[in-house]
Amino acid sequence: MAADKLSLLHKLETDKEDSLRINFVQAENSLNENQQKLKGLNDFRLEYTQQLHTKAQQGLSSSGFTQYHSFINKIEEAIKQQANTVATAKRVVEQRRKLWLTQQAKVKAIAKLIEKKQDEKQRLEAKAEQKMLDEFATNIFMRNKLLN
Questions:
Q1: Tell me, what CATH number does 108's domain have?
Q2: CA nearest 4: which of 103, 117, 105, 107?
Q3: Which of 41, 73, 76, 106 has a 20 to 30 Å separation from 120 between CA atoms?
Q4: Could you list the residue range(s) of the whole structural domain that residue 7 is in?
Q5: 3-60 residue pLDDT tens
Q6: Domain total for the chain?
Q7: pLDDT of 91-102, one tens digit each?
Q8: Residue 42 is assigned to a structural domain of this protein
Q9: Which helix (H) or strand (E) holds 36?
Q10: Alpha carbons 115 and 124: distance in angstroms, whole number
């Protein structure tokens, strides 16, 4: 009966571990996507800054320069926001990784307990079988002794 309860507990905890693993993988994927967006924004800023430099060398009006500079500032603000999103995503990944690893340890502990219970059961069964064989051998010995 206790083995059935442990098996049920093991299944429930394994299902929970699977769910936590999926959550962790999803968080990692989200982090990767956000890091790619940040890289894209940084690349865009660099490209736009290079455009400004090229246009400035060719001769750019002050209003044109102001527009470029204003747009670059907007890109930099977007980069800051995306960097914050990436930092948050990293924290979520770490949190979910810890939850998953903690659950893994719990599942392993339950599996170890089940294994220990099964070993104990087998040991007791072997002991009972040995006792029965000893009694059988004793009965045969006594019967043979009485018959002789």
A1: 1.10.287.1700
A2: 117
A3: 106
A4: 2-118
A5: 788 899 999 999 999 999 999 999 999 999 999 999 999 999 999 999 888 888 888 7
A6: 1
A7: 999 999 999 999
A8: yes
A9: helix 2-58
A10: 14
